[in-house]
Amino acid sequence: MERLDKIVSNQTGYSRKEVKELVRNKRIMVNDVVVSKSEIKVDPINDLISLDGENINVKKKVYLMLNKPKGYVSATEDKELPTVLELVPIEYSHRDLFPAGRLDRDTTGLMLITDDGEFAHNILSPKKHVKKTYNVTIDIPMTEEMVSGFKDGVNLIDGECKSAGLEITGQYTGVVTLVEGRYHQIKRMFGCFGAKVVELERIGMGNFFLPSDLELGECREFTEEELKRVKE
Ligand code: URA
User: Fold this and answer.
1) For a pocket test of ligand 1, which of 68, 184, 189, 197 has the largest count of ligand atoms closer than 8 A to its C-beta?
2) Does pTM top 0.90 for this prediction?
């Protein structure tokens, strides 16, 4: 349960003082009943909150896309380093958001940040086969041996990787597709071929690809249609 004035303020941009005034003017209803106190506690998700008859309910779940810059850790908190949550706009600060999956500190690109644990589990579980696509640059020329090795399943110390795609796009560059997300997976996979990853950018999850107008460090909500493509 949360204070009504806090919720209305978060949802509309009115200050708490202004919300008090709205209540005094009988402009706010909860479950179709005019409220008389702005500090009452309500359930922000299941109670119906309206201002001037218009629903201002809190969205049940939030799904944000972030174009992660280097230098940020994929965690909800860190003692020393900035986390990806610091790039999330302030209006989402009352939610229990977390990054769905990890990108290394020096990896850039598409991250999904949400408060929907079930959705996150579904897109991350290798059993669901949601592919993740990465642009990679390595320090030695790409080889066909790497392509077939990735396809057959590279052997890492924590077990054999599922079949992965590698498409060579330049002497040192390629596009990798994975359906799992182990610790430093792409770096370790190339390591098996004596190569070091020098640049790594996630460009896709499922059939959704990083929009070209989403600048590094920018964060916005997915549309429903975009979110559907993530699961494909
Ligand atoms: N593989 C890696 O090695 N690092 C990432 O950040 C993502 C995949």
Assistant:
1) 184
2) no
